[in-house]
Amino acid sequence: MESNPKENIIEEVTSKDYEFGFVTDIETDFVPKGLNEDIIRLISKKKEEPEWLLEFRLKAFRHWLTLKQPNWGHLDLPEIDYQDIIYYAAPRKRQEKQSLDEVDPELLATFDKLGISLDEQKKLSGVAVDAVMDSTSVKTTFQETLSKHGVIFMSFSEAVKQHPDLVRKYLGKVVPYTDNFFAALNSAVFSDGSFCYIPKGVHCPLELSTYFRINAANTGQFERTLIVADEGAYVSYMEGCTAPMRDENQLHAAIVEIIAETDAEVKYSTVQNWYPGDKEGKGGVYNLVTKRGLCRGDRSKISWTQVETGSAITWKYPGCVLMGDNSIGEFYSVAVTNNYQQADTGTKMIHLGKNTRSTIISKGISAGHSQNSYRGLVRVAPKAINSRNYSQCDSLLMGDQCGAHTWPYVQCGNESSILEHEATTSKISEDQLFYCQQRGIPTEKAIGLIVNGYAKDVLNRLPMEFAVEAQKLLSITLEGSVG
Amino acid sequence: MLLNIKNLHVSVAGKEILKGLNLGVNEGEIHAIMGPNGTGKSTLAAAITGREGYEITEGEIWYKGKNIVGMSPEDRANEGIFLSFQYPVEIPGVSIQNFMRTAVNSKREYLGLPALSTIEFMKMMKEKQAMVEITEKLQNRFVNVGYSGGEKKKNEIFQMAMLEPSLAILDETDSGLDIDALRIVANGVNQLHNKDNSFVVITHYQRLLDYIVPDFVHVMYDGRIVKSGGKHLAIELEEKGYEWIKDMNL
């Protein structure tokens, strides 16, 4: 057998180290390990929550007890010992964190290291950030600017205190706690997250952004994001995530709910870069997330854009329920898996209103020994006449040890609607690679170039600030994996 | 001597294609390589540029005083070796502008020079694409995606102009070109040619050599150069056909 130099390149380059794997030494407030009603009461009490929210949590918990961890994904998801997880960890506060001076400097340094400056003076204009470390929101920037426009953007816990009626009105309306196993779990133990409300007719003047960071060991992160765009409102929202390198797996089970009222538009972008585990597949984050948007009003629009490069296991299907007539749902995704990563991700587009439209562009990239699956559902209800869906699912393979799979489910309930599905599978060809090399472009750079070109349709949808980060991330994750 | 190939043997998938080829190219010279299909012309181009899968079992390739056997393809490129591909490859989603900028700056990095600024780069693009009569629209199109045969070849010569190689190998650049495109491509090559750089023009037909006039013509057969001569050799070959070479060789 002659050795295959291509294999070496794959190995070399896909074995690039995770950049964000540091741990911050910070005093942390934990609740004891394990999960029962007492723990939930304790979390609720620590957060000084109203009775109705505790009730919500307990109902969710009792329902969760009746459920089993789902196993229908094309994933090798181990049985998780839910009693071996800490459900609440928060950087210990030094009193109230009203001003930046009172935030632990270690925390600020952590976010600085991640390229997220929480100092408003230093920040490039245009993005307001809510930084969430472990279970707690650390700091939300640009509060004043936003409140001038009536935009509410704060940590979920803060919102429960300041705007209980709004939170109560919308919480669990898009993703009820009965939705699935992980949604029930999140509803029982969620710790923090972001809340965002854009009032009628307001075009949110800043990009809003939440940055999630898992730091503490043995801790699950269960955040909850709720975004409401009232009639005619517009907001662009970005989410970023990283975690330290740890040998054990960490659980991340989040919920994102979006509601768009009549003529409202929400753009939700994610660059997910949780720790993916090491080259042998040890450690890494289990990213088991429920994200859904409800286009409740006529002509409303919700758009999901995601770049998924991290996590040992990803299980998520950001979807849209198109309830309003003429409403629009979009899903643009680049999912990259390398080494032993597994991803089962896609979207659900549920057409209920008339003349509703949805677009799905999914670009999967698999390298190493990874498994990358697209799973999507497009359902057109009988009453959703004249609806349209266009789906395009492309897979790019690097090397011959990985897998790419596509499971598109389509249900059309009337005869006036049109659904289209296109799928391709390709490899980075030796020809492409040599062509680049012959122009003096080194292998690693060439891979980055080709992959970014392949994902261009999706990357172009990201807000500027994110697009650059995402491009770099793609190159770092995949440079050199040739097939 | 810019390029000196000595007794080159190259195998592809265990089969010997080049069987002891010798070729010397001085600075400023244009050499044409002709010969029937399957005699190893493209293999020679692949071996000089360092393409994977072309195993050099014997012999040496000296370029600018270095034996480059074993050097990576990108290093060879950055040392000034350029190949105009017979079949330029499509790279979807990558604009020619982005592609060329990456290439030019990779070379500059290799040579220890700072990257070009956007303005400098755009100026350079504009100059060079005028040379091959490329309209500016091309620069935002993806590399070779949806190009006509002529556009692909013009784009190759444009890239050559951008990278200013010392040694340019044109592999069947004339194939699939109409007479206008052929003229434009040849014109581009002639503008780039000077006393310091050299061209190796691989072609099947004499036609291209009416436009790019070679100093030497070599005829390849069965993995070797079997006859070398001046420009007239190409014409003789055209008249007598390749059977002449085969008969001569037997």
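Residues 1-15, 94-98, 121-125 of chain A have pLDDT under 50 and may be disordered.
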